[in-house]
Structure formats: C-alpha cells, structure tokens
C-alpha cells in the first residue's frame, strides 16, 4: 500500500497534528479500504481556531452556530453550484456528492483530478436514501457497485435544494431535486458514536459541519484552493 489513497491524494505523513482522532481515521481508512481519503476528513483543510476538545457546544471557542434559516440562505446564495455531477464512497459508508464546477486539484506531482466547487459528505454512521417515499439504499447496504450502476445516473444534474438539522430527531435531512431525500440519524451511544453528521464545502472555501446535538456550525475550517478560485472568479 502506498501512502496516498483515493482522489484527494493526501499523504498520510503530511496530515496536520491538530486533530489526532481524525488523522487516525484517515490512516485506518487507507489501510482498510484503499478508497478515497478525501473531503470527509477535515485533515484535507486547514482547521480553524477551535481547540476545545471535550467542551460542550456552547463553550467551544471559534465555533459559530448556523441555524436552518441561515443554511437556506447559503444554499440560495450558491444555488448555481449545487447541481450534482459525481457521487462516490470515501471509506466504509461515507458518501460524498461533488457539485457545481469541476475544479482540477493536484493530488500528487503531475497528476490532477476533479473536485466539485461544492461538496456534501455524509459523516454519520447511519443514513438512508429514498425517493418518492421508497427507500433505495442505506449505510448498511451501500456498495461501490450501487454507486457506479445506479447513483451516478440517479443524482446526475440533481440540485441540492435543502439541508436541514432536525433537532428533535438529532438528525440531518438533505433534499435533492426530483424528491431524492437523504436522512441521517445520529448515533449517540453504543460502539459507534457520531460527532459530526456531515461536511459541507461551499464555493467560497468554508467547510461547515453538523453537530448531532446542536446543528450546523462553522469552526473556521476551509479549503484554500476553493477560497482562491472563488475570489478570482
């Protein structure tokens, strides 16, 4: 196994030291799956000022809460970047959606690969996808073959229209056009516990998360490549 894995091409030795738990997840994913260690891991980005592991949401310094109304305004602002053109699996059941413009990213010297100007990645352990009320697949049954033979056509040119945190259910809901609904319910106890339900990279470079107890937030994480491209557009 090489030190590089997947489309993101992040080298394991180059991972920042700020979040050891997520760095370990990248390494484990590379060893176990050999898939894309990509946007689902915030090691891809420069982390913001939040260094308050173990504190409650209200005590976390540098983490700004984002409510559903503000998230709706964000989607409206970047609507032209929210049509999906690629779906993939990062590791295990972490599903990602590349949307908008296809930007070229260097994954290693001399090798370029496309990434969306916007990207949504499901970080939760448990999620379902349904359309017109019928469940299609969930996090336990998803396979690379499903992605290749069904999802690429199903999501192609479908627009992300809504992204909401459902506080009463501790869950995330995403809606793409033609009534494609994604629901992710947080696991808060047991062997696997969710600490983030999604990562949402928006065209100006910000990387937003979704705390399973408190909802969307911005902790200052960003993609400098996207930030630079957006500023120059």
Strand and helix map with partners:
Layout: H1 20-32, E1 64-66, H2 68-77, E2 84-89, E3 95-108, E4 111-122, E5 127-131, E6 134-138, H3 144-155, E7 160-166, E8 171-176, E9 180-185, E10 198-201, E11 207-211, E12 215-218, H4 224-232
Antiparallel strand pairs: 1-12, 2-3, 3-4, 4-10, 5-6, 5-9, 7-8, 8-9, 10-11, 11-12
How do you describe this structure in short?
By secondary structure, the protein is α+β, with helices and mostly antiparallel strands.
Order of helices and strands: HEHEEEEEHEEEEEEH
Percent helix range: 10-25%
Biggest beta sheet summary: 7 strands, antiparallel
Overall number of structural domains: 1
How would you write the strand order of the largest sheet?
Answer: 1-12-11-10-4-3-2
Outline, from the CA principal axes?
globular
Strand runs, count: 12
Indicate the structural class.
alpha+beta
Q: β content, as a range?
A: 25-35%
Helical stretch tally = 4
Mean pLDDT: 78
Low-confidence segments, given as residue ranges, are 1-59
Termini separation comes to 38 Å
Rounded radius of gyration (Å)? 17 Å
